[in-house]
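I hope you will forgive my troubling you with a question about protein structure. I am sending you one protein, given as its amino acid sequence and as whole-number tokens for its backbone shapes. Thank you for your consideration; the sequence and its tokens are set out here:
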Amino acid sequence: MWQQEILLGIIDNRELESRRRWTITTRTQVGDVKKSVVARKENGNSESAMCRELMKLPISHKSDRSYQDSAEDNDDFIVSESDRQMLLINGSRQQDEELDELSASVERIRGVGLTIHKELLAQEKIIDDLGTEMDSTTNRLDFVQKKVAMIMKKASAKGQIMMILFLLVLFIILFILVFLT
């Protein structure tokens, strides 16, 4: 299994070396436990017999078999724990990759947000300038309307008729000069 992971690039050399050291250390510890059990069995027959007597346990020759079973159970446990750790490592790597992708997406969104902010500031400035120009034009138009109203008040109805007639005569003269000549 770990060979496939090496080929797939999931495990690097440092991780592989760490696992080898852990396996060697674990096997050494299991060997030490085996040696201590065998030594107790050889040196402590009287203790073992006394313990069995006190506990009323029958003398059994199955201890070697149970020892082998427990060693196999230990090996199975070690393998299952190793597999579980591999799954955890793979899961954390996948989470790291997903977090990297999420971080890149957030950076892109941040860039878009900054661009939108700059554009909004530029649009706000344009609208403010337009508002200022509109205010200026409105003030000038109000001034002209007041002047026209004042001139209209000063001129009487007779003066207005005379002005209209004068402008009409001027129009006719200009029309004749432009189109007939």
Remarks:
- The chain is about 90% helix and 0% strand.
- The longest helix spans residues 63-154.
